[in-house]
Amino acid sequence: MNRRQALAHTTALFGAMAFSPGLLLAAKNIGKESLNGAALDATQVALLDEIADTMLPTTPDSPGAKAVGCGKVMAGIIKDCYVSEDGKLFAELLTEINQKSQTQFKTDFVKLTYANRLKVLTPYDAAKEKTYVKMKELAVFVYFTSQIGMNKALRYLEVPGKYDGSLPLHKGDKAWAWSFFTY
Question: Model-level pTM greater than 0.85?
Answer without folding.
Answer: no
